[in-house]
Amino acid sequence: MVWFQKRLRMPAVRRGFHLITDLLTAELPELEQIRVGTVHFFIQHTSASLSINENADPTVRHDFEEFFNRTAPENASYFRHNSEGSDDMPAHLKAAMLGTSVTIPITNGQLALGTWQGVYLGEHRNHGGRRWIIATLMGQEK
Length: 142
Fold this sequence. Notes:
This protein is of the alpha+beta class. It has a single domain (2-75, 82-141), classed as Sandwich (Jelly Rolls). It has 3 helices and 8 strands. The model has no long low-confidence stretch (mean pLDDT 97).
């Protein structure tokens, strides 16, 4: 059994939902060493999220953004936490709803995602900046 952990720096992206599966795997050549195992991705932020969903049709990412913007709107009169801007509290709520981590099986050196699955980075701030993700791999070596 082997364990490996790495801190990955994601590029700054605009607000919305972004497929980052290829970015993650490009930063993890260690995946190729694992025959069977898991990888856990954890984002170290309270205003961004990780999730797994549709990887082919970009309208899904658009619809995610529309839904969450309506569910946690900016400038709601009942929000008190707004010292960092009107997008701050809605960003925390979106991250809390979607979560900060995903765990994916590894099979023969590759993420064992379904045909239409990809890892999303949900950027919930208007100017969130670069984000940090901790990747922890464990499994049996090839």
